[in-house]
C-alpha cells in the first residue's frame, strides 16, 4: 500500500499549499483594487505629505517664540498674515511673528510648529496672545513624516485594504500590479444530485454544494466557475475535470464521499495527465474523506458530499490554498472571537475536530454553545456563528474554558 | 445656542441609525445573493431532505434486528438488496433483513437506521454479520430533520452567507427578495485637495479620502459613487450635495475639519430643503468634528478631512448606518480579537478614544501594541491590524490587561 492511502494530519495538508504557485499578474486601477493582492512592492515616488502641514486650526509659529508662555504670562506675537488652504505662503515668519493657519495648511518658511487656536486670543488686528508654549514640530506633520521618497510603502503579497488603497492614491499610484483573481472550478457529483430548479423525487436532493462552495470561493477572494452536476460516471467526470482544468486555477469536486465513488474519483484523477494524488484522507472531522491531487500545476480537491463537511473542509483547508494562489504572503490570520465554552465537548485524540457553535452574550463575555447535529444538515451551519477547532492531542474541552472561535461571516 | 451644538456621545449618535429606513427591494438570483440581506422570510416549501437518508456507508436495517449484537455475539442478517444513489428502493425490509446503502442513499421502507460498514462482515452473498447494535434513526437523517415544510428557515434581515445561499438552493429558492445595495455618494472638499493623477505642488495633497472611503463602503456592503473634489465654495458644495442626494442613499463629505469650513459645511447642509442637523461634534477621538444631517430621508455626513479620522469615524459610526440602510436586523457584531495590551495607554474621560494597534504573536496570546502617530498620517492605518476603543468612563488602560481589538481587514 502506497503512502497516499495513509490519512494525513491537517498541518501536513496545509503545508502542501506551498507546492503551488500564485496565479499571473495584471495591472489594475486603484478603483478596482480593493481586496486584491499587491504583486509588486509599492515605492513612494515622492515625500508624503511633501510639505510641512498643520494638524490643527491655529497659528503657525517659530516654536521658541512661545517658550515660557503661560496663562499668567502669555507671549505677545505679531500677526504676519493668513494662509489659505492649498496655497504656498508668500511670506516668511521672523521670530515673534505668527500666521493664521487651518488644519491641512502649509507652514510658511520660518515656522516649525502650530499653536492651537484655543490657546490664543486675538488682541487686535495685528497682535495675538499665546497662553501655551509649543515644541518644535508640535501640531505639525513634517515633510516626510508619512513616507519619505524611495521608501517601500506596501510590500508585494499584501492585501489591499481601504488604507492601502488610500495610501496608493496619496502617492499618485493610480495603477498597481496585482495578482489576478484565481478562478475556481466547481463540479458537483452524484446520481442523487439534481439541479436547483428541479423538484426532487424521493431519493434525490438539490445541488446545495455548488452554491455554498461558490459563495465560499467569492468570500475567500476567488472567482467561482460552476460546471454543474456530473452523474456517477467516470468518463463524464474525467471529461468535466479536463474542461475545468483548462479554464481554472483550482478545481473542487464535491460528492463521492461514499467508499465506492471515492475510489473512482481517485481513479479518474489518477488517469488525468501529469497527476499525483497528494492526500487521500485527512485526520479531520467532519471532512475525513477529502482527496487532494495535483494535476499539472493545479490543485484538484475531492471534497465530501455532505454539505457541512464540504463547507468545513473549505474553511479549514482549501482557503489556505486559495490564499496561496492569490499571492498572499505569510499566514493569513483567521478571524476569531474569544468565548467561554457552555458545555463539555468530547473529542477523539489523533484527529482535528471542528465543532459548529452559536455565540451568545454572557455578561461581558461571549458564550460558545456547540451545535449538535449531523454533518448532512445544512441547518446546523445556518445556525452557526463560528467554528471551534479541537487539536489532535486534546481529549476534549471543559465547560467554562476560554476558546477561540473562527467566525463565519 | 441650540441643542445641536452640544457634542454628542458615540452611543447617542449610533442610536440615530434608527431614524433612517432601509433601501428598496429587488429580486435576485441566488448566484448573486452572497453578502446581500434577505428582505422577506424564506419559508421551506417542502421537507428537507424529504426522505430518510443515510449518513454513512453501510447497511440499512430495522434497528431492533441489531439489538444485543456485539463482537462476541454478532447478529446474523439477510442481505435483501442494494440501493443505488438517487433511486427509490423498490423493495421493503422485513425484520432480520438489511440492504447495502451508501452515504446519501434513501432508506427502504421498513428500515429506520444504518449500520456502518466497519461494524459488519459479509459472510456470503446473502448474509452479513453485524457486530454493533444501532438505535432507531442512528446514522440517518430523517425526512424533516433539516427543515419541515412551512418552517421559516431564514428570517428577513439576515445576511446571506455561504450557508444561507446553500440552504436557499437546497429548498429550490433560486430567486430571493433582497434589499438593494445602498449607494453612497462620496465628495471630497478642500482647496488643498487635488486629483490623484496630478502631481501636488507644495501645499496640495492628493485626494486620499475618496479612495479609502470608497473601499470602506464596498467592504461594508454599499456601492460607492464618487463625485470627486469640490473646492471650498459653498455654492459648488451645495450643488454637488443636491446631485448626490438625488442619486444616492447616503452622502459622505470629507474635509472641512477646520473651524471655518466646518461652519460653512453646516450652513450649506442647513440650506438644503427639508434638512436637519442631527449631530455637530461627537465625543470621539479621532473624529470629534463630525457632522450628521438628515436631508429628506437621507443621512449626510460631514467627516473630518484627516485621513485617519475619516476612516475611524467610518468604521466606528458610519458603518452602523450603512447596515441599517442595507436592511440588516439587529446589531452587527464587530469582528474582534482578544489581545494583551503591551503598554499603558492614557485616555480622556468623557470621550471615546480609538487607538490604532499592531497585533503581534506573544506565546499563545496576541499582543496589541498601540501605534503612536498623528491622525493625518495614513501610514499609521497601513501599519494597523486593528482598532482599540477606550470607553468614555475609563481613564486609561494598563499594560498587560486583556482588550478586544476591532480587526481591520
- The strand order across the widest sheet of chain A is 7-4-6-5-9-8
Termini gap of chain A:
41 Å
Strand content of chain A: 25-35%
Uncertain segments of chain A are none
Largest sheet of chain A: 6 strands, mixed
Mean pLDDT of chain A comes to 92
**What count of helical segments of chain A does DSSP give?**
7
Work out the number of β strands of chain A: 28
CATH topology value of the largest domain in chain A: Molybdenum Cofactor Biosythetic Enzyme, Chain A
In total, how many domains does the architecture of chain A comprise?
4
The helix/strand class of chain A is alpha/beta
CATH architecture designation of the largest domain in chain A: 3-Layer(aba) Sandwich
Describe this structure in words.
- The structure is a homodimer of 409-residue chains.
- With 409 residues, the first copy, chain A, is of the alpha/beta class.
- Chain A has four domains: 3-24 and 180-326, MoaB/Mog-like domain (Molybdenum Cofactor Biosythetic Enzyme, Chain A, 3-Layer(aba) Sandwich); 29-43 and 152-179, no CATH class; 53-141, Molybdopterin biosynthesis moea protein, domain 3 (Molybdopterin biosynthesis moeA protein, domain 3); 336-407, Beta-clip.
- Chain A is 19% helix and 31% strand.
- The first copy, chain A, has seven helices and 28 strands.
- The first copy, chain A, has a six-stranded mixed sheet with strand order 7-4-6-5-9-8, with no helix packed on it. In chain A, strands 16-13-17-21-20-18 form a six-stranded mixed sheet, with helices on both faces.
- In chain A, helix 4 (234-247) crosses helix 5.
- The longest helix of chain A has 20 residues, at 307-326.
- Chains A and B meet through helix 2, strand 15, helix 3, helix 5 and strand 22 of A and helix 2, strand 15, helix 3, helix 5 and strand 22 of B.
Amino acid at each position: 500500500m502506497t503512502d497516499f492511502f495513509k490519512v494525513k494530519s491537517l498541518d501536513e495538508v496545509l503545508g502542501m499549499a506551498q507546492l503551488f504557485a500564485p496565479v499571473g499578474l495584471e495591472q489594475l486601477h486603484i478603483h478596482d483594487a480593493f481586496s486584491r493582492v499587491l504583486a509588486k512592492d509599492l515605492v513612494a515616488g515622492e515625500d508624503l505629505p511633501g510639505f510641512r502641514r498643520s494638524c490643527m486650526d491655529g497659528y503657525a509659529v517659530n516654536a521658541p517664540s512661545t517658550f515660557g508662555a503661560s496663562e499668567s504670562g502669555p507671549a505677545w506675537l505679531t500677526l504676519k498674515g493668513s494662509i489659505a488652504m492649498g496655497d504656498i505662503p508668500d511670506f516668511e515668519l521672523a521670530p515673534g511673528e505668527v500666521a493664521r493657519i487651518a488644519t491641512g495648511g502649509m507652514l510658511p518658511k520660518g515656522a516649525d510648529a502650530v499653536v492651537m487656536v484655543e490657546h490664543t486670543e486675538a488682541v487686535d488686528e495685528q497682535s495675538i496672545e499665546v497662553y501655551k508654549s509649543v515644541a518644535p514640530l508640535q501640531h505639525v506633520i513634517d515633510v516626510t513624516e508619512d513616507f519619505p521618497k524611495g521608501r517601500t510603502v506596501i510590500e508585494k503579497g499584501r492585501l489591499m485594504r481601504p488604507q492601502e488603497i488610500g495610501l496608493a492614491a496619496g502617492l499618485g499610484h493610480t495603477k498597481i500590479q496585482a495578482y489576478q483573481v484565481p478562478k475556481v472550478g466547481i463540479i458537483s457529483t452524484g446520481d442523487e444530485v439534481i439541479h436547483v430548479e428541479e423538484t426532487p423525487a424521493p431519493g434525490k436532493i438539490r445541488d446545495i454544494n455548488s452554491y455554498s462552495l461558490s459563495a465560499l470561493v467569492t468570500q475567500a477572494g476567488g472567482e467561482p466557475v460552476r460546471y454543474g452536476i456530473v452523474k456517477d460516471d467516470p468518463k463524464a467526470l474525467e471529461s468535466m475535470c479536463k474542461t475545468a482544468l483548462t479554464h481554472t486555477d483550482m478545481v473542487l469536486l464535491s460528492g463521492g464521499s461514499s467508499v465506492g465513488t471515492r475510489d473512482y474519483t481517485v481513479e479518474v484523477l489518477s488517469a488525468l495527465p501529469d497527476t499525483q494524488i497528494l492526500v487521500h484522507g485527512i485526520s479531520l472531522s467532519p471532512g475525513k474523506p477529502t482527496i487532494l491531487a495535483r494535476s499539472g500545476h493545479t490543485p484538484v480537491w475531492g471534497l465530501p458530499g455532505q454539505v457541512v463537511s464540504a463547507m468545513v473542509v473549505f474553511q479549514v483547508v482549501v482557503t489556505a490554498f486559495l490564499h496561496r494562489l492569490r499571492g498572499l504572503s505569510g499566514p493569513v490570520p483567521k478571524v476569531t472571537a474569544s468565548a467561554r465554552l457552555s458545555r463539555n465537548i468530547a473529542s477523539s485524540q489523533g484527529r482535528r475536530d471542528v465543532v459548529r457553535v452559536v455565540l451568545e452574550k454572557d455578561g461581558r463575555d461571549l458564550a460558545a454553545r456547540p451545535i449538535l447535529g449531523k454533518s448532512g444538515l445544512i441547518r446546523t451551519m445556518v445556525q452557526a456563528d463560528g467554528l471551534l477547532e479541537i487539536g489532535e492531542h486534546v481529549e476534549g474541552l471543559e465547560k467554562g474554558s476560554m476558546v477561540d472561535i473562527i467566525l463565519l461571516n
